[in-house]
């Protein structure tokens, strides 16, 4: 980051922007563990002023994500020891909200990155991205989407005795992803409320085997491993009934050649995993089946996003207060 604050007049202003990807999570057995970034994006801008007021607000464009953005940006400023900076945030969002595609995780990552970058620009002390992980998990409540959005690619988030460990998971280039979501949202709180406090021992024992197969299949592209791995016993059986046509759509995608199909996060988006050249067809199959059972929100093929988000300095200048 080459921009610096010009203190010849007051208050100086810095304009930042960051583009953060959507993410699918769980992919069956990777519950609250696995997040994989996909090519729908939320772009968040920040007007930053060194005015000593510590005011963080939005321009009204953030909708449901307003509080998440504000709290995340504040956390980023505090981590960078600059809570007195003021920020005005704007959002341009392609990610369907409350559909299991990591819209809130993307907002958390964007706010943290913008706040930490603004603080680091003033202090000329860059904050390591890994230092944001604890804050991201605390803000989001679970690591999968927010951590993936911070780092890009497919990520496993492991809690260790010394803190969170973020591991990159290779995804074979032959693997493609297809998405479809109904018009109706599904709040994460509702999707978590239906989960049982206990599951049968056989189900608990089988899920780690499925996860091992999934990770090996993602790395190698092995169809048999992916088919075995894209199955869950801990959350999907209770969440599928919340989404009209979901079970039928997943079955149709498998019949159409998907290696496997499952919920994206807690839903209501469905994700099919299959040959990369078949992803557009699989998206149509998922979408057609959902449409038969109600209003379809959207359907599309999606590509893995490996690159981590980068905060860009749009301009740095002096100016009047907001």
From TrEMBL:
Residue intervals of the GHMP kinase N-terminal domain: 80-153
Positions with a binding annotation for ATP: 96-106
Reactions catalysed, as given in the entry: L-homoserine + ATP = O-phospho-L-homoserine + ADP + H(+)
UniProt-annotated location(s): Cytoplasm
InterPro entries membership: GHMP_kinase_C_dom (IPR013750), GHMP_kinase_C_sf (IPR036554), GHMP_kinase_N_dom (IPR006204), GHMP_knse_ATP-bd_CS (IPR006203), Homoserine_kinase (IPR000870), Ribosomal_Su5_D2-typ_SF (IPR020568), Ribsml_uS5_D2-typ_fold_subgr (IPR014721)
CC terms in the record's Gene Ontology section: cytoplasm
Signal peptide: none
Keyword check for Glycoprotein: no
UniProt-recorded Gene Ontology molecular function terms: ATP binding; homoserine kinase activity
SUPFAM superfamilies, per database record: GHMP Kinase, C-terminal domain (SSF55060), Ribosomal protein S5 domain 2-like (SSF54211)
One GO BP annotation of this record: threonine biosynthetic process
EC number: 2.7.1.39
Enzyme class: transferase
Recorded coiled-coil stretches: none
Taxonomic superkingdom: Bacteria
Domain GHMP kinase C-terminal: start-end pairs: 218-285
Pathway: Amino-acid biosynthesis; L-threonine biosynthesis; L-threonine from L-aspartate: step 4/5
Pfam families in the record: GHMP_kinases_C (PF08544), GHMP_kinases_N (PF00288)
Keywords assigned by UniProt, alphabetized: Amino-acid biosynthesis, ATP-binding, Cytoplasm, Kinase, Nucleotide-binding, Threonine biosynthesis, Transferase
Role according to the record: Catalyzes the ATP-dependent phosphorylation of L-homoserine to L-homoserine phosphate.
Family: Belongs to the GHMP kinase family. Homoserine kinase subfamily.
Matching HAMAP family: Homoser_kinase (MF_00384)
Protein name in the entry: Homoserine kinase
The organism of origin for this protein: Rohdeia mirabilis
């Amino acid at each position: 980051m080459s921009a610096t604050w010009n203190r010849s007049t007051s208050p100086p202003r810095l304009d930042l922007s960051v583009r953060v990807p959507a993410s699918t999570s769980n992919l069956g057995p990777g519950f609250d563990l696995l997040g994989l970034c996909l090519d729908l994006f939320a772009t968040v801008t920040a007007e930053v002023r060194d005015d000593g007021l510590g005011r963080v607000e939005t321009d009204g464009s953030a909708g449901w994500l307003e509080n998440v953005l504000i709290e995340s940006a504040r956390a980023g400023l505090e981590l960078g020891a600059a809570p007195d900076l003021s920020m005005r945030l704007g959002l341009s969002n392609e990610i369907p909200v409350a559909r299991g595609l990591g819209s809130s995780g993307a907002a958390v990552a964007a706010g943290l990155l913008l706040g930490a970058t603004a603080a680091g620009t003033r202090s000329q002390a860059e904050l390591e991205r890994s230092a944001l992980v604890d804050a991201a998990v605390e803000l989001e409540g679970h690591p999968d989407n927010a951590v993936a959005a911070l780092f890009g690619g497919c990520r496993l988030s492991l809690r260790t005795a010394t803190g969170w460990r973020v591991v990159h998971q290779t995804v074979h280039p032959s693997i493609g992803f297809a998405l479809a979501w109904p018009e109706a949202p599904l709040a994460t709180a509702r999707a978590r409320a239906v989960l049982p406090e206990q599951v049968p021992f056989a189900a608990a024992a089988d899920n780690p085997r499925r996860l091992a197969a999934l990770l090996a299949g993602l790395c190698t592209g092995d169809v048999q491993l992916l088919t075995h791995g894209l199955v869950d016993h801990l959350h999907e059986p209770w969440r599928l009934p919340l989404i009209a046509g979901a079970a039928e759509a997943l079955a149709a995608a498998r019949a159409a050649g998907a290696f496997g199909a499952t919920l994206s996060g807690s839903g209501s988006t469905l994700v099919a995993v299959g040959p990369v050249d078949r992803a557009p067809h699989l998206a149509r199959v998922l979408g057609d089946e959902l449409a038969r059972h109600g209003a379809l929100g959207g359907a599309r093929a999606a590509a893995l996003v490996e690159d981590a988000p980068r905060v860009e300095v749009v301009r740095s200048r002096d100016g009047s207060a907001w």
